[in-house]
Design brief:
With 259 residues, the chain is α/β, with parallel strands linked by helices. Helix content is 48%, strand content 17%.
Length: 259
């Protein structure tokens, strides 16, 4: 179905692999377009409960954008490139009602770092490296990097890394809050699947509301508290809430249906 992606649905988890290992999985127009289509599948298909985004091979998650596509672009075309990417892929991932996590298996630079940061959280292999080196090209991040990196790692470190173009390794990235877990490469996907298997056993409507609330908190939305109250109340109108509370009182495992 896809030319630049490999997709595989396993026990409700959709594994999306960017498959350009000869180009270190660099993002070009085709990858961006197909990623948008794959994320649409996550939104629309009820059999997909969650997703993992990763890269093919053992060297790179996504080592950046395909710079050859930048030549000849003027100010308007550059703006359009960033706008379309954010609208059709990065923002769509961040606001997905189902969990989407990044399994970062190597270099996550530029657009690759931005792709990982747009996911709800990240796991990294021990050889992973993160960075936003756009300044070396006379550019800045254009797919939300300045915003999401600051949310995750704080202002000071973001300023340093973006102005120097330096990279950080997996353990430092974990210390900065960029990644949740650092693992040997062979354990990366199994760990990601294990976490999502646990999440997939929870109430899907509640998971979607958690994503919305935490995303609002990350941007200091002034309505965050009010929206949490509203969504908390909405949970009381779901079958899943009745099932969850009854299961707790009856000392059995809840079976949620997303209703």
């Amino acid at each position: 179905m896809y030319q630049t992606l490999l997709t595989d649905l396993q026990d409700g988890t959709y594994i999306i692999t960017i498959n350009r290992p000869d180009k270190l999985n660099a993002l070009n127009k085709d990858v961006i377009e197909e990623l948008g289509q794959a994320i649409d599948e996550v939104y629309k298909k009820p059999e997909i409960k969650a997703a993992i985004i990763t890269g093919a091979g053992e060297k790179a998650f996504v080592a950046g954008a395909d710079i050859s596509e930048f030549t000849g672009l003027d100010k308007e075309a550059g703006t359009e490139l960033a706008y379309k990417g954010q609208k059709n892929v990065f923002d769509k991932i961040e606001n997905a009602p189902k969990p989407i996590i990044a399994a970062v298996n190597g270099f996550a630079l530029g657009g690759g770092c931005e792709l990982a940061m747009s996911c709800h959280f990240r796991l990294a292999s021990e050889n992973a490296k993160f960075g936003q080196p756009e300044v070396n090209l006379g550019l800045i991040p254009g797919y939300g990097g300045t915003q999401r990196f600051t949310q995750l790692a704080g202002k000071g470190k973001t300023m340093e890394l973006m102005m120097t173009g330096d990279m950080v390794g997996a353990e430092e990235a974990k210390g900065l809050g960029l990644v949740n877990h650092v693992l040997p490469l062979a354990d990366l996907l199994p760990k990601a699947k294990d976490i999502l298997q646990k999440i997939n056993s929870k109430a899907p409507l509640a998971i979607a509301k958690i994503i919305s609330c935490v995303n609002e908190a990350a941007i200091c939305d002034k309505n965050g508290f009010a929206n949490e109250i509203k969504r908390f109340g909405e949970c009381f109108g779901t079958e899943d809430m009745l099932e969850g509370t009854n299961a707790f009182l009856e000392k059995r495992k809840a079976i949620f249906k997303g209703k």
